[in-house]
Amino acid sequence: MITTMTGKNQITVPAQLARKLKIEPGTRLQWSVDQQGRLIAEPLPPRSILARRAAGMGRQWLPEGADPVGDLIQERAESDQEEKLS
């Protein structure tokens, strides 16, 4: 399969490859060059999947029963009261 780069440095992923790799509009591609000078485009997971993967990653380092989000909300509420914002 051959594609041509436009004057704006854009290319079209051939439909056959896009279907095979499940590349859809909005898919982000990570570009790199290997040691032989070949261009590599790797589809990245959607940001929603990356966010789900990241959710709770640090939980293993928290003491049991810790609620850092609740603590932050409480700190902000106390700060607002001290500054007479609420």
Could you please describe the fold and organization of this structure?
- Helix content is 35%, strand content 12%.
- It is α+β, with helices and mostly antiparallel strands.
- The longest helix has 15 residues, at 68-82.
- 0% of the residues are buried.
- The radius of gyration is 23 Å and the shape is elongated.
- The protein contains three helices and two strands.
- The chain has helices spanning 15-21, 47-54, 68-82; strands at 29-33, 39-43.
- The termini are far apart.
- The chain has one domain (15-82).
| Terminal CA distance | 63 Å
- Largest sheet: number of strands, sense, barrel closure: 2 strands, antiparallel
Q: What is the total tally of β strands?
A: 2
* Amount of beta strand: 5-15%
Q: Indicate the structural class.
A: alpha+beta
Shape: elongated
Helix content percent band:
25-40%
CA-based gyration radius? 23 Å
Low-confidence stretches: none
Oligomer designation: single chain
Number of helices: 3
The overall pLDDT average reads 90
Task: Sketch the topology as an H/E string, one letter per element.
Answer: HEEHH
What is the strand arrangement across the widest sheet?
1-2
* Domains, number: 1
